[in-house]
Structures are given as C-alpha cells and as structure tokens.
Amino acid sequence: MSKVKAGGTSKNNHDSPGQRLGVKLFGGQKVKTGQVIVRQTGLSKRNGVGTFVSRNFTIHASKDGVIKFQERRVRLFTGKTVKRTEVTVV
Questions:
Q1: Structural domains in the chain?
Q2: If DSSP codes are grouped into helix, strand and coil, which group holds residue 42?
C-alpha cells in the first residue's frame, strides 16, 4: 500500500522567455552596416534599399546611413493590395 495519497499531475507549469521582438532603431537614427533594425516573425515590415532580410525575418542594414520608414502598397498573392511599412537606409 502507498504511504501518501496520489497527487495529481501539474499541467501548463512551464513558461518561455520573451523573444525580444520589435523595432530596435527608429527613423532618423544613424545605422552601421550589419546592425539590426527590426526583429520580427513574418514580413510585417518589408526591406527596402540599403537593407536585407535574414532567415528569421530580421531586417539588417547593408550599408551605413540613416533609417527611413515609409508606407507602401503591396500586392498579395490573391491580388489584394495592403499597406506595409518599408524600411530603407539612405
């Protein structure tokens, strides 16, 4: 026989740390080559001139300059056009 009463199993008792996503450098700020501008999941913000996207959708600067954010209309696969923010380095 058991000495202690049966305890229930605990569920949902683990927690993962935040991913630290978001805009790291804002419009008008100076940036150097390779610096992270935006960390994101998916392409909510698009890359423009002077920037490139890495495999995890992080936008980096490909040259030295000043960051500029602007709204662009992008055509989706379905033919619908939606506004997306474009990040450029001038």
A1: 22-89 (2.40.50.100)
A2: coil
